[in-house]
Write a structure and sequence with these properties.
Layout lengths: L1 E8 L16 H12 L8 E2 L8 E10 L6 H11 L4 E9 L11 E9 L12 E2 L6 H8 L4 E4 L14 E12 L2 E8 L6 H13 L7 H8 L14 E7 L1
Parallel strand pairs: 3-10, 5-6
Antiparallel strand pairs: 1-3, 1-4, 2-3, 5-9, 5-10, 7-8, 8-9
Length: 243
């Protein structure tokens, strides 16, 4: 039986999603809990994608296969009783065996939060504490250059070995509420460090260090060595995944 879970997590104390020997990761915690439910048989949990250390998720999605049929509400209760408090299962549903949390994905949305006001130690793990003014109107004009289908090689980590760096960004948005700026990217998929590099460039534009037109120029370069300062992990959230 294949089950789909929607879950949230606080990434502050994790070394990312993917299992890494000797390190605390979200996937490791999930697989320990799911394996316990699956009659102590080691069980893989496949997510919609990997998030880096310090990155959070509001609605991440994953799937796993159980040898026994268990009502969805019991799986939710069981997993939440076994998981640490920084991971929470929101929903569980039975899905067809050809469903795949990663390969069945249609689009994803990430948001990034920046504090341009006074440093807030209580939110240091959840909002990037930039602490300086940014020209949000310039950033709003610049972000639209990311929309559409592009080769995003200039914004991808060299650690990402996928040959195809072409992605389609359907929607972008920047809004400000008091001293908090929220940046939104919705696309058919994202690669390692892509969102954080795009945000890093927008911050440089908002601070006057780069021009609005630099977005288009850097995209066209298709060169990872574009000297973009990557934005810190703590402001980034996977908000939603669509199937």
């Amino acid at each position: 039986m294949r089950y789909k879970i929607t879950f949230s997590y606080d990434g502050s104390n994790f070394h990312g999603y993917q299992v890494q020997p000797g390190l605390r990761t979200i996937q490791n915690e999930l697989e320990k809990a799911v394996s316990y439910l699956n009659r102590q048989e080691k069980t893989s949990v496949q997510s919609s994608g990997r998030t880096d250390g310090g990155v959070h998720a509001i609605e991440q999605v994953a799937h796993f296969d159980l040898n026994i049929e268990i009502p969805e509400y019991k799986i939710k209760l069981g997993l939440n009783s076994l998981l640490p408090q920084d991971i929470h299962i929101i929903n569980v549903s039975k899905v067809p065996n050809d469903f795949h949390a990663r390969f069945s994905t249609k689009k994803k949305e990430y948001i990034y939060k920046i504090n341009i006001g006074e440093y807030n130690p209580m939110m240091r793990n959840y909002i990037y504490q930039y602490g300086k003014e940014l020209d949000i109107e310039k950033m709003k004009k610049a972000i639209h250059f990311f929309e559409g289908t592009h080769d995003f090689t200039s914004f991808v980590s060299s650690e990402d070995k996928r040959e195809d760096k072409i992605r389609t960004i359907y929607k972008t948005n920047i809004k400000k509420q008091k001293e908090i700026i929220t940046i939104v990217f919705q696309a058919d998929g994202f690669m390692k460090y892509q969102v954080r590099n795009m945000v890093g460039l927008l911050i440089e534009i908002g601070s006057g260090k780069r021009k609005i037109q630099d977005v288009e120029k850097i995209i066209l370069k298709k060169n990872r060595n574009s000297s973009i300062k990557i934005a810190p992990a703590e402001g980034l959230y996977l908000r939603k995944v669509w199937y």
